[in-house]
Amino acid sequence: MWWYMWRNYRGLMVLGALGVSSPAAVGTFQRTIRDNHDGMTNCADLLRDNALKGGEKKAHCDSMIMESIRLIDELADKDK
Fold first, then answer.
1. 20: helix, strand or coil
2. For 28, which DSSP code?
3. What is the 3-state secondary structure (H, E, C) of 33-77?
4. What angle in degrees, to the nearest 10, is found between the helix axes of 10-17 and 23-36?
5. Fewest C-beta in 10 Å: which of 1, 63, 75, 77?
6. pLDDT for the residue numbered 9
7. Residue 37 and residue 15: Cα distance in Å, rounded?
8. How far is CA 3 from CA 15, 21, 22, in A?
C-alpha cells in the first residue's frame, strides 16, 4: 500500500498533510526525485527504466518509497 505514496506525487500529498506547504519544500521534493532518477518522476517511467536495467519491481518500489520517506522527513524537519 505504501507504494501509492510515490505514484502520482503522493509524496507531495504527504508533505501537505504534515503541514509543509512552502513552494521551496515542494520544489525541493520534485527536483530531488527528478535529479536522482535521470529526470523521471512518473511511476510508470521509473518502473520501465528499472525493468530495462533488469531490476526487480518490488525492490525498486521499496527503494523509491524509502527515498521518498527520508526526503519527506528531511523537508518536514526543515519546515518546522
1. coil
2. H
3. HHHHCCCCCCHHHHHHHHHHCCCCHHHHHHHHHHHHHHHHHHHHH
4. 150
5. 1
6. 63
7. 20
8. 15, 22, 24
- The whole-model pTM stands at 0.79
pLDDT of amino acid 4: 41
78: helix, strand or coil: helix
Question: In this predicted model, which residue has the larger pLDDT, 55 or 10?
Answer: 55
Query: What confidence tens digit (pLDDT) does each residue in 1-36 have?
Result: 344 444 546 777 788 888 887 888 888 988 999 999
